[in-house]
Design a protein that fits this description.
About 25% of the residues lie in helices and about 40% in strands. It is α+β, with helices and mostly antiparallel strands. The protein has a single domain (about 5-140), classed as 2-Layer Sandwich (Alpha-D-Glucose-1,6-Bisphosphate, Chain A, domain 4), CATH 3.30.530.
């Protein structure tokens, strides 16, 4: 099963960064590839089980389901329900951890999924370097560090 792992250090306390990302509908604010997002059925953006439908700037459309959200652990997990990527059983987790040396936090984003074996390496690269890392770079920019 292919696995994506991206991590970074953001120069802001975990609680400040968490306030930016905990809303499941907030992707357009901090994920550069996302053009627009909405929560289906007008559910709250932090309600486990809610589904977000969003459009990428390249025109792709996805639907994802919020599986878990923990304000205590600064963690969110979700699955892809529909995607043009050709993946199945996709589950991702984004987690923050306070860095005790300064007002910073450690961020890590993982994803596991199934796909055609010939596409695995390309998809891991596209998700990690094309989505996860640019999102962390955007958060660094928002909080004053590149």
């Amino acid at each position: 099963m292919p696995r994506v792992y991206v991590s970074s250090v953001i120069d802001a306390p975990a609680e400040r960064v968490w306030a930016e990302i905990r809303d499941f509908n907030a992707l357009p604010r901090w994920v550069p590839a996302v053009a627009e997002s909405r929560i289906e059925g007008n559910a709250p953006g932090d309600q486990v089980g809610c589904v977000r439908a969003f459009t990428l700037k390249d025109g792709g459309a996805l639907r994802e389901k919020l599986l878990a959200l923990s304000d205590f652990d600064y963690a969110v997990s979700y699955s892809i329900l529909e995607s043009p990527m050709g993946v199945s059983n996709y589950v991702a987790t984004l987690r923050l951890a306070p860095v005790t040396d300064g007002e910073r936090c450690f961020a890590e984003w993982t994803a596991e999924f199934e796909c055609e074996p010939a596409r695995a390496e390309d998809l891991v690269e596209r998700i990690g370097r094309g989505v996860f890392q640019p999102a962390f770079d955007e958060l660094k920019k928002k909080f004053g560090r590149r």
